[in-house]
Write a structure and sequence with these properties.
The protein has 278 residues and is an alpha/beta fold. 36% of the residues lie in helices and 12% in strands. The protein contains eleven helices and eight strands. Strand 3, helix 3 and strand 4 form a beta-alpha-beta unit.
Length: 278
Amino acid sequence: MIQKAAAEKPPILMVHGAFAGGWAFENFQAYFEDLGYRCLAPDLRHHRGADDRPVSPELSRTSLLHYVSDLEALIGTLGCEPVLMGHSMGGLLCQMLAAHGRGSALILLAPSPPAGIFPASAMEMLTSFGIFASGMGWGQSSLAPDHKATAIHALAHIPELPKKAILDRLSPESGYALFEIMCWMMDPQQASRVDALQVKLPVLAAVGRLDTINRPDTVRQIAQRYGERAAFQSFDGVGHWLLDGPDWQDIAEHCARWLERPSLAEQGNAGRPSKNGG
């Protein structure tokens, strides 16, 4: 792999998905740091990370907009615009950041779709209906992880030992944020809406062909929103959790090769100072 000098490489902001924490990117963070990138993998607001702190009652009132605000504040401390890399819900948050003019490139790993993309499968439709019928968005509750469903629908391709380690680290998620993603058509704020015309960055959208949460058809629609700037890639034998399992390094290497293409710097904001003037 052709590598840029470390001084030329933008930092990478790695944004985790629902029920997770910055720990979800441990493999990717180590891989990209070995390539000379500075990587940041923060825990989203009110997420426990790797410890056993009790869940904050404020989690139930946390919106996608709060997550984006916190991430924008973090970007403002970096001094330049980072690569935005997000998994699942984190992929949606990265699209929202890009529409705000943040970032130098956008890597979406099994991303959740923004408002305007309808469910592409029966499972996605049932999940949306279940969240709406529960009153979760209106009552602003938090939701505990469903370990059985996660094992089946997100981690089926991952061997038992790392699968158990992932399940043991999951933590509750904001029902309000999940409502904003899954039931965007009923959300008066339209919090998950992304103006695709405002996303000026090169985009890589990647998905596992076995993903039943954000299916390949859905992720392909996301890529198509961004036109010629976007590349789409699917991976055989991989489910929703692209960050671990037998193929995670192949996926990380594909992302690194895409990121280090000579043409990428011409498309993105690499090296551009952050909006906060750092």
